[in-house]
Known about the structure:
The complex is a heterodimer. Chain A has 10 helices and 11 strands. Chain A is an alpha+beta fold.
Amino acid sequence: MTPEEIQKLLDTKFKSLNDKFIQVQQDLADARKDGASAEELGKLVISVKAQGTALDDFIEMQKEKVVNSVTKQFNDFLIENKEQLSNIKKNKQGTIEFIPKAVGAISTGSGVDAEDPNPNINTKPGSFGLRNDNDLLNLMSVTSTSTNSAPYTEWVPKDGNYAFVSEGGEKPQIDFKWENRYPSPKKIAAYEILTEEAVTDVTRLRSIAESYLRQKHDLFKVSATFFADGSGEFPLGATEYGRIFVAGDMALGVDNTNFMDVVNACVTDIYTTQNFTDEIEYMANVAMINPVDFYLELVSAKDERGLPLYPQAGLFNTVTIGGITIKPWSKIPAGKIFVADMKKYNLVNYIPFSIRVGWINDQFITNQFTILGESRFFQYVKNLDQNAFIYDDIATIKTAITVV
Amino acid sequence: MKEEDKIKEAKEAKEAKGLHKVTYLKNHGTRKKDEVVEMHLSTGKALEAHEIAKVGKKVELKEAVRGK
């Protein structure tokens, strides 16, 4: 109960006694006026005295109680805060607040944590809201090897060709060459350090830590196979293989250009770009754009009746037309488009992802341990196949193919 | 240069080899004004026809890099 509430109750009690005192005084005056007997008047006078005494006693009692209670609390306060008061005196500045306490109702606010609670008790097991991009790996040619090399051979036609030859005439010679290449394995690795106490006290912490290692590994691997720059220990990502769009015969050739014209222009560019005569054409199988572009160009695209032009976009978050799948991916910057025959991107898994546990340095005597996640793989795109990757600006391609 | 000449030039550029430096004359897509990008002559000439960019000199083979 607050001091204000206590004061209010005391005021009410005081008013009640005071009202009774005034009432008996009034009754005495009325009795005199009405010619009451001496005996009746005597009784009323005694009653007035009794009420007056009760009122005085109450006032004195409350004064005494409050003063005693506050004095005791103040004395205790001085003892408890002796050090702080000493500091104020020494520093010649500072404040300290004394709030008199009073008995009050027990409410929900009455209970508090006297000490900091153990947060581990309330830690609930869960998982991280990490994206899963693993399906993008399925677009590539994924194989496995158990050897520490993944050589591949490029066969290239050279000179000469068949000819119609007359009797006795000399036949033409044709030849070809091949080149062996040796990609080096790339390693992805990271580790976590945990204490024995943590994995014991927090429910499923070990499992969550291992799951986190796995998810981060997978995301990093997919991202690297698309965006890593090939320097040092990095692999070379598919977008880095990506060349720019070549307008060629498509330059300034399209009326009312829309996004699908851009995609088809890239597909055509990839299809018609050949390394040598009669080379099999590259068939782009995937186009990836930023999710915002996906919405603007496909999900929200409508015909003149307001019907969606690409219902698949809204329903399945992907559009498959003529063998090419258009997908949104947040890793693709807004305004960019990646179109490729991703089967030409080779991913050769060498050491599958594994998690190992061990002690390093003084971890054994400090109740710590290390969890290590690691994998190794080869990646390559044959030199001749690099034309099968385009990474360029949507606006640039659209403008380049649009009639003036 | 006349409009039809620009179109003709852009179409003829398809046979060109290598890359050319192209300077954007205004903000366009992800490209900023004055940004220099290496691209095929046919694409550069098409952008030039739209008055989006200006084609510059041919990139020497040793300094040619893949477009980003």
